[in-house]
Amino acid sequence: MDFNSYALSLLILVPTFGALVCLGPWFPKERGAEACRWWAVLVSALVLALILALVKGSLVEPNATLSMEEARTWIPSFGITYHLKLDGLSAVFVVLTALISLVVIAWSARPKQGHRAWYALLLAGEASVIGAFLATDLVLFYVFYELMLLPVVGGLALWGGARKFTAALKFLLYTVVGSVLMLLAIIYLGWSGRALLGSGEASFAFEITTLSSLQLLTAQEEVWVALAFLIAFAVKIPMVPLHSWVPDTYREAPHGVAAFTAALLGKVGIYGILRFMWPLFPTFMVQVAPLLAVIGAVGIVYGALVALAQKDIRSLLAYSSVSHLGFCVLGIASISEMAVTGAVFQALSHGLVTAALFLVFGAVIDREGVRDFESLGGLAPKLPWVAFFLMVFSIASIALPLTSSFVGEFLIIIGSWASFPQWTLLALFGVVLGAVYTLTAYLKIMFGAPRPSSETGSRGDLRGTDVVLASALALSIFVLGLFPQRVLSLIEGALQPTFESRFASAAHAVEGISPNDNPVDQAGALPVVSAKDTANHDHLSLDSRSL
Amino acid sequence: MNALTPFAPILTLSLGSLGYLLGGKFMERTKLTALFACVVVGVALYLIVGAVDTGPTIVHGLVVNPFSRLLALLACAGALVSIVGSASSLRGEEIEMTSEYYFLMLTSLCGALLMVLASDLLTLFIGLEVASLALYCLCGARVAKRASSESALKYFLMGSFSSAFFLYGIALWYGATGTLAVVSEPRVVVSSSPLLMLSFLMMVVGMAFKLGLAPFHFWVPDVYQGAPTSVTTYMSCVVKVAAFGALLRLSIESFVVPTPWSTGVLWLIAVLAMTVGNFAALQQRSVKRMLAYSSVAQAGYMLMGLVAFDGSSDAIAAVLYYLIAYSAMTIGAFMVLSAIGPDADDLDDVRGLGKRSPFLATCLTVVFLALAGLPPGLAGLIGKVYLFAVTLSNEFYGLAIIAALNSALSCAYYLRVPAAALFQSAPSEVALRLSLPTKVALLVCAGAVVMLGVFPQAVLDLATNAAAVLSAH
Q1: pLDDT tens-digit map of B123-156
Q2: What span, in angstroms and rounded, lies between the C-alpha atoms of A489 and A87?
Q3: Does A176 touch chain B (CB under 8 A)?
Q4: Going by fewer Cβ within 10 Å, which terminus of chain A is more open, N or C?
Q5: Within 10 A of B346 (CB to CB), how many other CB atoms are there?
Q6: Comparing C-alpha atoms, which of B331, B322, B442 is closest to residue B373?
Q7: Is B392 within 8 Å of A180 when comparing Cβ atoms?
Q8: How far apart are CA A347 and CA A334, in angstroms?
Q9: Residue B115 in contact with residue B127, Cβ under 8 Å?
Q10: Which residue in A has a C-alpha nearest to residue B394's C-alpha?
């Protein structure tokens, strides 16, 4: 019964327990709100402390690899396991989740009614997102993946704006259709394993290492199954043609929920591609890479252009999110180790920046009671702290050097240049556009001509805890920007095995592909697979099946 | 004495129901009426758990094996929970003659057990009739309400019609094989003669009526809505369990399905049921009608397992697991409605339930999420995963995709109910008071829905064990 064998479960159980306690009769209406908040802060701080304690060792020691696992049987007759794993890849995302949850929970602005439900939903959301980042069994992952909807839908429906039900329905339909297809694909995969595992005790397998060690699918099957995964993750991230739930959700959700959603939910999509799709469908990922690069680059520019045209702060943030996440997609598409590491780093950084922007802009919206640029202006003298933090986070958003976004976008651009120069060029154009809309918005709101504001909101400038929290976010953005090396090597350490075992083996066999199709990375990191090789590959897998 | 053991639970139930006829007047209007019913069903449950397998030799037209025992257990447990849960809502439903009410309910349960345990077709038919006749009367138990009487009449007409189909199927079966045993010696294959094919069709149609599978579902919404909610609660579980048990055994033990022909028939019914049920449910504002149509769709999902049956026990185990999970969900769903009030039906009646009774709203949310196949109601999710898995693994890709899209679609109407309960304001803020038995029964249902998903292995083992009996043939 040592601590380590339960540590990963505790990361999920502690916030779950915290959420259940919030719902109890201990925190009555009116009087209990502050107590409930402090309880939730305590719980989420505990989670953050726990994950930092687990990660600390590998951050301090150079070249230490992080790998913790916890495996239990869950439903042996389907081979479904309760399997959690913490490695460099999941660790950065879990730390991000714990930090953002703490900030959102501790942030002083919250809906006027229903404090119990508010903190319970946020803690439950934290638990499910952490669960999704830790699970390596596909079915377990799916359960957490669905549970993540809870805070968004609940938050929208309970405290959303005027069009909250439309927004909630749109969000639900998009994500559920995506995830049901993924569930079918998961079952199909698990069942395919049966032919190889034999019809013994566990005739199905859903654990990712087991699955990826078997060659389960023929090339054609792989395309369909992988496509189902890709659609589900593309909706979550969101990738460009499937992003239309984003503006509605971000416009209608309360600040905290919008920050939580924007900062964390999409990251599960990115994580899902790296954790599950890469090891399972390496051939497909190589084939689809050019398409993903186009989607990523187009997403960057499209998001930025639409953001330029927005008059509503929330919509601007939504489209700027779409634009910045396009970088992650581009980075993943290039399959060079540098760019993918950059993509993970960018995801981390985007989580911090975007949550901060949603919360601080939230303070502006609360105070002024309006949120379109036309009716805002000249707020800097009235709200010095808000002006200061918005400057900091806007700078971080447009990826100026010294900030974490710079590191992420720089790595992505350098890394993907070799594979997709034309799309990288387009992405660079997007960076310029990003600076334009972010700074214009900032200048208009803070230094534009003062508008007669209605001042319906009672809150003024940021105060007390909020300043501390915003500073913490700003500090982590700059620390990551100045000293990214440890975190980068942590991520690299986790990604390397996949690169070596999967893509490199594909690259080994044939050293080139028709150059107009898929240019080769000079460093040799880009895996390339020719049609002939794919055919061989299938042949082999069929052979092993018949054995 | 040994020869009597398979009969013991059925005898208990019939003696108990006779007890109501003889002594009912003495306990009328007291809590004893409900308590006595609980005791009787409890004893029957105990006897079923302890019943010894009869093995291949068939005693007096009954057979006890893991399969029939599991279904009998499920029917009794479902009846017990729904009796406990609705005991205190009878007064609100203006059901005055409580001893007659329980007499009918025990009789109907007795019939259901007979159906499940029967080893020859006549016994099965008698069980079917006993169960149905009592239920027709129960549907009309709320004498003062017209819809209740209407539903009783409708159910009676449709039910007799379907019984005739079933009986004709039995006659044809006898003509073709010369025996009334469920398992004929030597075995016959359904597609071997036109007589058998016709007989199979007749029996499937008869059972599809009882199960409310499309296109034989027209009675379902009216009956589910018109009947007192406490009766609907009972009916939605026990009838499904008994009829599904009969359908599974007939198709596999008597007709030696699968043949391409019979699979085609079942495939068509399953697809129709899930699609028609879902699309009709989408348009309902009445929660009871919505649940009725959704039960059509859910029966379609379960039939998927029979379509995918390939001789191994997996497919049947999937149906059984889902049947168990579904029983908990549907009892829970209807019981929440009956706890809100005797006339709670429209979506407006559910609005703002979160404020009126947080406990009830939580149960409602768990149960409806489970019906939609979403966590934390994990039983629904695991059940669907299992059903999809067997369907895919026997290469019915089209069916699996249709079912998956249907189950995504079903979220749209299932989620409306918890959304209304939690997120909309109540027309009246009066807090709801629940009686202790109702609370306990609701807790059992919601708990079962969650726990069947978190620790499913024991139940899966039970289901696999039971399914092995059928696939052994």
Answers
A1: 999 999 999 999 999 999 888 888 899 999 999 9
A2: 12
A3: yes
A4: N
A5: 15
A6: B322
A7: no
A8: 16
A9: yes
A10: A191
What is the sign, positive or negative, of the torsion defined by CA atoms of B178, B131, B257, B64? negative
Contact (CB<8Å) B389/A187: yes
- Chain A CB contacts of B376 below 8 Å: 147
How far is it, in rounded angstroms, from Cα B326 to Cα B308? 19
Cβ contacts (< 8 Å) between A147 and chain B: which residues? 375-376
Mutate to test the interface with B, among A16, A73, A170, A187 (most CBs of B within 10 A): A187
pTM to 2 decimals? Answer: 0.80
Contact between chains at B382 and A75 (C-beta distance less than 8 A) = yes
User: What are the pLDDT tens digits along chain B (473 aa)?
Assistant: 466 677 889 999 999 999 988 887 777 767 788 888 999 999 999 998 887 776 655 656 888 888 999 999 999 999 999 999 888 888 888 877 888 899 999 999 999 999 999 988 999 999 999 999 999 999 998 888 888 999 999 999 999 999 999 999 999 999 988 888 888 777 777 777 888 899 999 999 999 999 999 889 999 999 999 999 999 999 999 999 999 999 999 988 888 777 888 889 999 999 999 999 999 999 888 999 999 999 999 999 999 999 998 888 889 999 999 999 999 999 999 999 999 888 888 888 888 888 888 889 889 999 999 998 887 778 888 899 889 888 888 888 899 989 988 988 888 899 889 888 887 877 777 888 888 899 999 999 999 998 898 888 889 989 998 998 887 76
The secondary structure element, H or E, covering residue A404 is helix A404-417
Q: Residue B313's Cα: distance from chain center in Å?
A: 21
Which tokens belong to B444? Answer: 């059992």
Q: How many residues does chain B have?
A: 473
Type of residue at B297: A
* Chain centroid to CA B348: 27
Highest mean pLDDT among A214-223, A511-520, B114-123: B114-123
Q: What is the CA radius of gyration of chain A?
A: 23
CA B346 – CA B147 distance, rounded (Å): 15
Question: A194 contacts in B (CB within 8 Å)?
Answer: 393
Do residues B442 and B85 make contact, with C-beta atoms less than 8 angstroms apart? yes
Put simply, the chain A residues between 52 and 81 with a CB less than 8 A from any chain B CB are 74-78
Q: Which amino acid is at A210?
A: T
- Of B401, B408, B457, nearest to A77 by CB-CB distance is B457
CA distance A2 to chain B (A): 24
For an interface test with A, give the residue of B368, B393, B396 to mutate (most A CBs within 10 A).
B393
- Chain-chain contact of A76 with B392 (C-beta, under 8 angstroms): no
The answer to whether the Cα torsion of A90, A95, A98, A100 is positive or negative is negative
Are A83 and A69 a contacting pair, CB within 8 Å? yes
Specify the DSSP class assigned to residue B413.
Answer: H
Q: Is A221 on the interface with B (CB under 8 A)?
A: no
Residue B423: its chain A contacts at CB < 8 A? 157-158
The two structure tokens encoding residue A347: 């995801």
Radius of gyration, CA atoms only, chain B: 21
Asked whether the beta carbons of B247 and B316 are under 8 A apart, the reply is no
Cβ contact, residue pair A76, B457, below 8 Å: yes
Cα torsion angle, B399, B401, B407, B413, sign: negative
Residues of A in contact with B408 (CB under 8 A): 176-177, 180
Q: Is A191 on the interface with B (CB under 8 A)?
A: yes
Identify residues of B whose CB sits under 8 angstroms from chain A CBs. 374-376, 378, 381-382, 385-386, 388-389, 392-393, 400-401, 404-405, 407-408, 411-412, 415, 419, 422-423, 456-457, 460-461, 464
A231 interfacial to chain B (CB closer than 8 Å): no
